[in-house]
Amino acid sequence: MDDNKVIRTDAGAVNGQSKCPKCGATDISYNTEIGKLRCNFCRHEFEPDIAEEGRDIASLEGQYIGSGAVDIKADAEDIITLKCGSCGAEVVIDTNNSTQARCHWCRNTLSINSQVPNGAVPDAVLPFKLGRDEARSSIEKFVGSRKFFAHPRFKREFTTENVMGVYFPYMVVDANTHAEFSGQGEHETRRYTVKEGDDRNTYYDADLYDVSRSFDMTVSGLTIESSKDKLDVNSREKTTNIVNSIMPFDTENCVKWDSNYLKGFTSEKRDVNVDGLKGIVGEQTKDIARYAANDTLDFYDRGVRWDNERVEIKGQKWMAAYLPVWLYSYHQKKGGKSLLHYVAVNARTNETMGSVPIHMPRLWIVSAFVELLGLLATVLTSFYLLDPNEHEWWPWAFLLSGFIFFFAMYSRYRNQGARHYHEKETKTEVSDLRCSDEFVRSRYKLSNSMMSDANNNHVGGTLAGNAASGALKMLSEGITQEIKNQF
Question: How many angstroms separate the CA atoms of 288 and 426, rounded?
């Protein structure tokens, strides 16, 4: 897949005036309520041009790249000068900030519609479907359910007036793959309890099988951030994992690029090339295949350990797209440190996720009270409700109440482990499935309820892996830092 085949998605696109098909005016905007472009002069509304689907995914061989997803040129100009087609004036557009500008003489709108080599113009755009008022309501509801432990300053300053509609840059990938997995799985045949001295222990019998799965799989609309900032899901300065967590988007409804969709919204320019994302896409494709194989493993209720995993990507298609997000941000500054909290709303599905600053003193006090209740529960159950001759372990679990409450509340407010579940939420289709299951032997008196080395539910995709592995580390570091900041 060394030779890229470029798909010209801006064929026929012309920079300059995008005109209303009815009256010829250039003042055009997008109406989120009805999903159509609207002329602000004659009020004519017209359907968007749907982005071309391209070739069938199952027949993809090699690598296809949309012209909006080709490598960014380091020396590409951000400032582009257009000549107004109405009065002849020259109009400058800074593509770092916008792809449109008004002519200062005749007031016509000029647009950048053909792709420029600085990553500012994608292949497609997914228009906003959720209005600003609906987004504000979702954000207010999310934050409102987390007010009790929220930082007092945040509660005073919180307002959804500064909610912004943002188009973020993504790569949308379709892939034609072949997957092969082999390993061993266990099926439970018996569960029983044995009294050993004063204790009663549960054991399991299970049958061990050699397991293999082979199948073709198409992946449709695997979506990856193409901004270095948003790829850093473990950022210490920004809760960028929040933006990742509100996927997936209905990318099948993307429309052909038109600068008019960005009117009234802001956007971020792509700054990552295809080669910089291949590793992530490869790992996430393997995760998707691993979870697709799980649909055939119901018999193995104790899990499966894959010893060999191979996912061959026979063909791929990469398209650059702008996808819509309503974003609330809050800058928390304390003790010389700062953290940018996000609450994000998927502007297509209304899925909402966020990070809320925590008032640590209150959380500590309430957690200590819960821990005291747990201590009392331990004493009552151990000395008054249970037979003194019985040695039960479960009453002592109440001693963890305060710690469990603290970490549960911290996680609920900060959501550091929130992420997009690409392995389950990406659209796939499996064909030519081949299964092999061969009995090896029976195993007896096993102490674990599941295979200790089962990995059929493992997720190794770079973003997911970073979010999962970094969540606990960031949790402990984040708690430590907030304690330092607030005490």
Answer: 7
